[in-house]
Amino acid sequence: MDSRTSDGGTDEGIVFPHPSDPTKTMERGSMYNPVTNRVDPYEEIWSDTVPPPGTQIAFLEREDGSSFIAIIGELRLGVGRLYAWRAEGGKVIYETGWGEGMHIDLSEDVKEGSTVGPWVVREFWKT
After folding, report:
1. What whole-number distance in Å separates Cα of residue 64 and Cα of residue 20?
2. Of these four, 36, 45, 87, 88, which has the most CB atoms within 10 Å of its CB?
3. Each residue of 31-58: pLDDT tens digit?
4. The model scores a pTM over 0.85
5. Residue 3 domain-assigned?
């Protein structure tokens, strides 16, 4: 499945409590599947993790809304129309495309609404 298609498709699903595990959340929906070349159903299972006190949390978005970066301590995730990446501790774990914004450093004085290069800081706090 691929939510980064150029055909205008969407990645939309319904999120609800996991039926057999109260610590998880389930998402069901449909999106473009490049293997079958059609829109197919999908299912994802999400788990919550509580970061330790003092962990930096940030969400950044390009001004045009085409991509975003999520930062939770040493964990980073970037998603755009034609790329996605995940990094931990400065090491790339997964990457498709060119990984825009992977090495952004946020200082203590960053404020919500400020910009870091082409990125708008939508949320910024510490646990």
Report:
1. 39
2. 87
3. 887 788 888 898 999 888 788 999 999 9
4. no
5. no
